[in-house]
Write a structure and sequence with these properties.
alpha+beta; single chain; 16-stranded antiparallel β-barrel; 498 residues; 43% strand; rod-shaped; Porin
Length: 498
């Protein structure tokens, strides 16, 4: 660009000099030659004008060429600058992509190394927490552990009257106890369909001490229609016993429930659900009464329980009281029926049976809940088959109804319960039972009829997790060919559950 400009200046200067020389020449000539022809002068002037016009055209042409050159140079420079900028951006993007790949490779490498370097608790820490109980599980969900607990401190006042005629004791008592202290361990192993359940229990009632393995079972769910359980587990003979003990309407079971329910069983159970229908069938060792700890078989006889449960409306579930703020938003109605055969290996005061009895029985339950109201009705039947040399065959029956209503939603609840027992024969003197407080069963004296009237008041600080329950019962009974007896009972219980 600078070379063109310099050349242009020299050409313009030369033209200027030539033009000046031509301009001076006629003047000189006119001074020396006065007789120059006028026409020649005019011709020269015309030539000079033509040369000036040519010079002007050249000057404009040169200026146009110079401008064009400048524009081309600028365009070239702009193209180079844009190319350099594009190259810089592409380089930066490439660096970012590579950095991302490097980070991903580093994370994958760390994940591959961490299981070998970190203890399992650290690997699973992100999956630990609290959801009504404490839990920890691995990332796959194939292995998990849930820990729940139940604590029930209780005060009981009991005052019987008229039992001495049966060989009982009319001694009143007031006791503070830890009625139940439990830890539950549950979860799954290897696969979500393979589950386990353990219960450890301690109690101070009956001067108890130490820890008992209450439940220990494993289960495999093959489909909604088939689950197989094996181990020691609560029986599915009566609804209330199968229910969640931490969600009872009253602090304790009724006398009828204690008398006819079957305790834990050790064996195998199959169950499943099809729509609203649930079935359960178990084969196990002989099932002892709730006042007996032993569950081993002494012969080849096994116990069988068949159970059907049908949700007519919304499911009632396994809680006798629902402290939800809104109560039950839909009507809940569930019916329950069960049948059993149970050979008796160990005498039980609660069950009014002695070793060697063969018992058959059935139970039925109707459960209804809507809004802040709940109701349960239960019926019990048992046949004690003839035991040679001791007694003949006899039938016994029991019943129970209970209802609850929330005066203050999710906080204050009133409850009532009436239940009864009608024994067909009194086996208790033959059982060797030593329990004095027969409110948990007929204990150490025989009676024929017993009716229990109970009222309750429950206050829920935080649902079933933290609550208090107050219960008063009046018991009215009569014996075989003897007079009546009675008792007053008060129970105040607190509960902490997680």
């Amino acid at each position: 660009m600078f070379v063109v400009r310099s050349t242009t200046r020299r050409v313009i200067l030369a033209l200027g000099v030539a033009t000046a020389a031509l301009a001076v020449s006629p003047a000189v000539h006119a001074q020396t030659t006065d007789d120059t022809d006028a026409s020649e002068i005019k011709s020269l002037e015309q030539d000079l004008a033509a040369q000036r016009a040519a010079t002007l055209r050249l000057t404009r042409r040169l200026s146009a060429l110079e401008k064009k050159t400048e524009l081309q140079a600028k365009a070239t420079l702009d193209a180079q600058t844009a190319l350099e900028a594009k190259t810089a951006i592409e380089t930066q993007n490439a660096i970012k992509v590579q950095a991302t790949l490097d980070r991903q490779n580093t994370l994958e490498a760390q994940k591959a190394v961490e299981p070998a370097l970190s203890p399992p608790a650290q690997v699973k820490a992100g999956f630990a927490g609290y959801d009504g109980g404490f839990y920890v599980e691995d990332a796959s969900g194939n292995n998990s552990l849930h820990i729940d607990g139940l604590l029930q401190p209780r005060f009981t006042y009991f005052a019987p009257r008229g039992t001495s005629q049966y060989g009982g004791s009319d001694q009143s008592s007031a006791n503070f106890n830890v009625f139940l202290g439990r830890l539950y361990f549950s979860g799954n192993l290897i696969d979500p369909s393979i589950t386990y359940f353990f219960t450890l229990q301690g109690t101070t009632t009956g001067n108890g001490s130490g820890i008992t393995l209450l439940d220990a079972e494993m289960a495999k769910k093959f489909s909604p229609y088939l689950t197989i359980e094996a181990g020691k587990y609560w029986s599915s003979y009566t609804y209330e016993y199968y229910d969640d003990i931490g969600k009872y309407l009253f602090p304790d079971l009724s006398a009828a429930e204690w008398a006819f329910s079957l305790g834990r069983q050790t064996g195998v159970r199959v169950s499943g659900t099809a729509g609203k229908l649930t079935y359960r069938f178990s084969v196990s060792n002989a099932i002892p009464g709730s006042d007996v700890g032993s569950s081993e078989n002494f012969n080849t006889n096994t116990a069988e329980i068949a159970n059907l449960q049908y949700d007519v409306l919304a499911p009632y579930g396994y809680q006798e009281s629902d402290p939800s703020p809104g109560g039950a938003t839909k009507p809940e109605l569930t019916v329950w029926a069960a049948a059993m055969y149970n050979p008796v290996n160990t005498s039980s005061a609660f069950e009014n049976e002695i070793a060697g009895d063969r018992t058959y029985g059935a139970t039925a339950n109707l459960n209804f809940r809507y809004g802040y109201f709940s109701f349960q009705g239960s019926g019990y039947y048992k046949n004690n088959n003839a035991r040679e040399g001791v007694h003949g065959s006899y039938n016994s029956a029991g019943w129970q109804e209970q209802a609850g209503y929330y005066l203050i939603p999710s906080k204050l609840e009133i409850a009532e319960r009436v239940d009864g027992i009608d024994w067909g024969y009194g086996e208790i003197p033959d059982t060797g039972g030593s329990e004095v407080q027969w409110f948990a069963g007929p204990s150490n004296f025989s009676f024929h009829h017993l009716t229990e009237y109970t009222g309750g008041l429950n206050y829920y600080f935080h649902g079933h997790n933290f609550k208090t329950q107050l219960q008063y019962s009046y018991m009215d009974g009569s014996g075989f060919n003897k007079g009546g007896f009675s008792a007053n009972r008060v129970v105040l219980q607190g509960q902490l559950e997680f």
